[in-house]
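Me: Here is a favour to ask of a fellow structure person. Could you put it straight underneath, so I can go through it closely?

Assistant:
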Amino acid sequence: MNMKTNKIILSAALLGLVFSSCTDLDVDVDSQYTQMPGTEAAVNANMNDLFIKFRGTLGRRYMEATCLSSDEYTAVSYSGNWVDGYTYAHSAYHNYNYEDAVLDWMSELGKANVLASEIAGSSYPEQNRYEARLMRAFHTFLEMDMWGDVPIADGDYVTEHGLDPNNRHPRAEVAKYIEKELLEIIAADKLSTDVFGDYYGKPTKYMAQALLVKLYINWPVYTAAAVESYDAATAKNEKLNDCIALCDELIKSGKFALGPDEYRFKFNWDNTERVKAGTIKDFIYAMEYDTSTAQGMQWGRSHSYKDIKKLDPSMFGEFLNNSGGAYMTLTPECVSRFNLKGDQRNWMVFGLEDKDHNPANGQVYVYDNKTLLPTDVKCLDRNGNPLVLTKDIAVPGELASVDVGDDLEGWRQGYRSSKWFVCNNDYSNGRNQSNDVPIFRYADILLTKAEAMVRAGQSGSKELFNQIRTYVGAPTLDNDPTLDDIYMERGREFFDELWRRNDMIRFGHYEDEWFPHYKNNPNANFEKTRRIFPIKKGDLDVNDGWSQNAGY
């Protein structure tokens, strides 16, 4: 790209997505981003604007779309409350509608990519331009993973490869573009390697490598002739050795570790401070949140207990002075995965085990908000009776909205996640939590390398797998893990971290049965085209050349 001009070539499809049904490729961009701002502070402000574009979406709608479409969570409603046009239930049933609110964020990533392309083609410092390219690759990856064919925001690439500028681009081509970008970014070696200091939460060399690892392990999914033609049992992955080599680079960097903090503290409301103090070294890339200065993370609202304001103390060890939504509860199939003796991750589920790892049988214990462990104190409901959740979920009301009833019996349906621990200081501030959300973790690199080795027929993956097990106090394996072992372990290790849908598709389990996605349920859809979501109606309306994804 010619850095001497202010003319930036963008895909017409991308501009149509963001602005209108524009079809002029040559767009004069006379914004604050095309020329070097007058001060370093101005540059930093503009870059930070790009870095946090995904924050709001990640804090709610992306979480809902990924979690509810997996076997981790089901939607529930309460006698008409939290039906919301069936947007949550549609995801749980894989019966998505192109007007569902949980899917209304493609245009936000499109805006981020317009901004990234402006900066990448500007007179900004070289490091900033590479950071912009990395963020563009990351946002494009998210779009591709969720919707399949998506616009490539790099107009030069579109032109050079003879792609239709007025349409979305084939998923396989998008995957190859992301690979090309990431390889160039990594080879240029212009990105920071300061992961836990001032560059925590910003794009670094290691983020680029971790994103490429994720792209490579899913390569046959993204490059399949069609979404529905991917077959986990027969797919061949030509990128396994490249994936292993990248994992080795991240491991050998010496920057990352599973500890020293114990597992549960990684997801607490003070994890920003723990990262910067050096007690969390597992985060390769994370989105920072703060209840006052970086708002948007509100998972406690949807994940907790509907009548939580009447619990004193709540399961989080203190009174919470805001109500809960609780329109997402854990499926019984998800809870059943937490079955390893002594596994610290079992405490991530309220109602599963007591402080000594004995079965709690649904009894919710009050957790100590300092140790984040269950105490001997039983949580009591509004009537002063022990709060006992049910693993199996009864639906006495409308099946289509998973109506469990708006009473004590309905409120206790389904176990709940304790992973993203809530404190009242945050929750009282519009339910905005300060828990940072890791997107790429070192633990993922270890398990991905193990997976790639098993898929490639290589021995020696046991050591990687057992690092995870040893860290959380779970039983270790005597032999190399099978792919099924790794799939189940990923379900425990990355529970409630938004990767389950991605894993289920890659391992061939997205068309399995789990509550309420059962074959005897008339609302459930099992078509393989549901591996990606429908394009939102509003995005189709402003892009005349776009067609809806197959199956919708």
About this structure: Residues 1-8, 19-30 have pLDDT under 50 and may be disordered. The longest helix spans residues 126-147. The first strand starts at residue 7 and ends at 9. The beta strands are 7-9, 26-28, 73-75, 283-287, 328-330, 349-350, 365-367, 374-378, 416-417, 437-441.
